[in-house]
Amino acid sequence: MITIRVPLDGRSYDVFVGHGARSELSAMLPSTARRVAVVTQSGIPLEVDPGLPFECFEIGHGEEHKTLHTVETLCRGFASIGLTRNDVVVSVGGGMVSDVAGFAAASWHRGVAVVHVSTTLLGMVDAAIGGKTGVNLPVAGVDGLDKLGGKNLIGAYWQPSGVICDLDALATLPPRELRCGRGEMAKYHFLTGDDLLTMSEAERIARCVQIKADIVADDERESGRRALLNYGHTLAHALETETGHSLAHGEAVAIGLVYAAHLAHRLGRISRERVQRHYDVVRGIYELATDLPEGISRERLVHLMGFDKKVLGDGLTFVLDGPSGVEVVAGVSAADAFAALREMPA
Ligand code: GLY
User: Fold this and answer.
1) Ligand 1 pocket: which residues have CB below 6 Å?
2) How many CB atoms sit inside 10 A of residue 197's CB?
3) Looking at ligand 1, which residue's alpha carbon is closest to its atom 3?
4) Most buried in the list 23, 171, 271, 308, measured by CB within 10 Å?
5) Dihedral over alpha carbons 299, 304, 308, 314 (to 10 degrees)
6) How far apart are CA 242 and CA 220, in angstroms?
7) Domain 2-173: CATH architecture, name and number where available
8) Average model confidence (pLDDT) for the chain?
9) Catalytic site includes residue 116
10) For 193-227, what is each residue's pLDDT tens digit?
11) Which residues, other chains included, contact 86 with Cβ-Cβ below 8 Å and sequence gap of 6+?
12) What per-residue confidence (pLDDT) applies to 182?
């Protein structure tokens, strides 16, 4: 078992990575807890035993269930079992489950403890770590709110009391789910230069957790460095929306990473060789597709990227590679964003 500490003053917590790590769950629960609300989804391949009386609550699959209505249903469930502020919510699943359960925990009694048991690669290396929780709020007709499906518009920073990454769950994941996790891993490759795929599975996941833990410890509320975790994500969010989520998050991030390289090259920030390096890593090493989906409208993608939550001031905002490494770049023109998209095969 590998343990990574997320150091956050009085709210520090451990992340356990390893096969069978779920056996540590009961030890991770707050000593005040007398009962547990387990939030999960149908088909999650991991059973947990919190060692206390517990009730399971299932949420639906898909972005359309990532709503305030689901949070309300969960909170009504918490009420039905008499979950107090001394008790604990345990999420068991991927990023959607930890986002929704985390937000319900942040809201119930103005905040009860939550422990995430992550069962997907993407959840382990990203979503379960760092305390971002939330749900979507598409707002029809309000520019900037409906365009990207209102993704994670309502949420809270609510750090878990602990995170368990049980590698047993990965053996059951469909190849597509694993691909999605590799998309986020490729992102870490560019943030650090680490050759993650030369490591064992456990070391690789632990290293991603460590990278994220360091960034979150430095900038919990994304006033600076944490934004770098959005490398490749500006185009990715637009692609997810424009394809109606037929392109999954990690797949979209893979395309978003090579797009960010094309754009950085266009803006004179990196060489043509460095763009090629993005292809070599994302396509060659991480074995992810990098072409734009056939028939997609580049104009629509630029339009959608203009509604990204991270836009700062005029123009578009991206996280881009450059002479000092990856950094936030504001004020990018739509013309440059479009021209970089045209360099990408579809
Ligand atoms: N997934 C990006 C972050 O946690 O900041």
Assistant:
1) 126, 130, 132, 226, 229
2) 15
3) 229
4) 308
5) 50
6) 30
7) 3-Layer(aba) Sandwich (3.40)
8) 94
9) no
10) 888 888 999 999 999 999 999 999 999 999 999 99
11) 30, 32, 33, 34, 112
12) 93
Q: How confident is the model at residue 142 (pLDDT cuts 50, 70, 90)?
A: low
| pLDDT at residue 147, rounded to an integer | 64
Of how many residues is the chain composed? 346
Query: Quick one: which H or E segment has residue 91?
Result: strand 88-93
Catalytic residue flag (residue 61): no
- What does residue 6 show for φ and ψ, rounded to 5 degrees? -100, 105
Task: Retrieve residue 195's tokens.
Answer: 């050759």
Give the ligand 1 atom nearest the CA of 131: 4
Contact 100, 66 (CB under 8 A): yes
- Tell me how far apart the alpha carbons of residues 252 and 236 are, in angstroms, rounded to a whole number: 4
Share above pLDDT 90 across residues of the chain, in percent, rounded to a whole number: 87
d(CA 46, CA 276): 40
Q: What is the C-alpha to C-alpha distance for residues 57 and 39, in angstroms, rounded to an integer?
A: 5
Q: How far is the CA of 215 from the centre of ligand 1 (A)?
A: 10
pLDDT of residue 25: 98
Q: How far is the CA of 233 from the centre of ligand 1 (A)?
A: 10
Q: CATH for 225-342, among 1.10.8.60, 1.20.1540.10, 1.20.1090.10, 3.40.50.300?
A: 1.20.1090.10
Our answer to whether residue 152 is catalytic in this structure is: no
Domain boundaries, the chain: 2-173, 225-342
pTM confidence score: 0.94
Half-sphere exposure of 236 (CA within 13 A, CB side): 26
